[in-house]
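Proteins fold. Shown next:

***
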Amino acid sequence: MSINKPFLFDSDSLKNFHKRIFFSVLVFCFCFTSAFCKITYISVSNHFDEPSKLTTDQNLKRGNIYDRNGLILAATINSKSLYAQANLINDIDILSKKLEKILNINEAIIKNKLSSKKKFIYLKRNISPLEHQKIIDLGEIHLKFENHKTRLYPYKNNTSHIVGFVNIDQSGQTGIERFYDKALLSSNDIHLSIDINLQQSIRSNLIKTVKHYQAESGLALVLDISTGEVLSSVSYPDFNPNNKNFNDNNLINRVIQSNYEMGSTFKPLTAANGFDYNVINSEMIFDIKKSVKGVRDHDRYKDDGLYNVERIVVESSNIGTAQIALKIGKEFQKDFLNKLGFFNKIEIESLEAEKPLANPNNWGLHETTRIGFGHSFSITPLHLVRAYATLANEGYQVDPTFILNKNNTTKKNILLKRETSNYFLNLLNAVITKTKFTGPRVKIDGYMIGGKTGTSELLNPNGGYYKDRNMTSFIGVFPTNNPRYIVYTAIEYPKKPKDSKQRMTGAVVNAPLVKKIILEMIKILNIPPYKINNLLKADIKNIYESKYAFL
């Protein structure tokens, strides 16, 4: 019987075993060190060596933005971007020429990128399906595609200032995109009060007016009095949010960001101020032959110069309005303007909205008179529109919004007397029915419209006013027999056409534009005319002039 002896290493075998162990440890250390260095390099590298999955793979799709009728104003779609492994491309010259024709990018720009010899370089983001196929057909294996999500704005410039835009990381930068950034990133949809059909129409008419008068800029705004909803808000110049090549001037939303002296559109507010505080009444007479320090009228007074309040507003007398303001006094004036929200920023769905430059440092008699007819007091167009809306809404506060069905339509906070609202609307009706220049440019058969023009000098950033630059405007209430909408337009620095002998005023420049806007509103919003019920034209005129004996 044999006994198995335990296996023992001889000296040579033991040495070889130790060598193998040592070599294995050495290889392991080398691999570990290499992997560690690679990880460290990737983590600290600041340049784009290859596409980052962190920026392209998004678990949540950004929510859509819709208009009031459910039409998409902003949506996130799958897209492709073209990049090149430039360090591996041989014939740069030939490839650059081919890509120029496909991508519509200058050959020199493409050649410069490919000559960088980088491992990863973008050639074009968000390429079209046709571009994608043509590049594939080239057969260049070192041209590659990166899948990612991109934000698409179907209506381009039409909604740019309201909707805003996002950056490459899908983060909101301006407008609704910025204000509701967290909600949209959480895949929540936003429904706006904007009617895109009306928006497009108004923008088109505004641009035509701006170009006809070779103006610097223009804006238009339509507000629903009953809900506070903004149906249309246009600021021009604007930008295409699908393309990020725009300047700072185009980014300015003049409706909510720019402060202006509102000129004569302020005069009905001054009259309403006096009426609400029982300082004036409809029968009170003012002698506009009596001068007010620092105030003048463009046109001399007529007849005996004895004007009631209505005539002061209709003929837009600066002296008459200044006298009303002096009668009101500084304290009542400040209190009234504060009620209408002229000293605070409007809480609307935009982080770009600006606070008015409304509170003069020294509010004395001079400021009181000038504020009365819309000077020495700067507010945004939205502030003026909100004030008119409140006055037309039986004195109930109106809160502007870009969001559909946000506000409770029930009237809650009353700021002014109902009688003041009626008085205010009668003044606006009188402007349209009793003026030779404004009225005929705005009137529409079957619809009652009230409003007021404004012409004011533009402020010079270096101090004072521009002598040769002004802003023309018109603000209207429509229809005045059942107030529902405020329409406002303003044109900055309109220039007189060569064939025109007329002075550039709100009546000449803006009144026809407002008429076009209202005609579009009638068609798009399906607004019926009032029922005449066999009344004579004379009776209809009396309806305008009565104290709200409307049908």
Q: What stands out?
A: DSSP finds 21 helices and 14 strands in the chain. Confidence is low (pLDDT under 50) at residues 1-9, 35-58, 532-551. The longest strand covers residues 465-478.
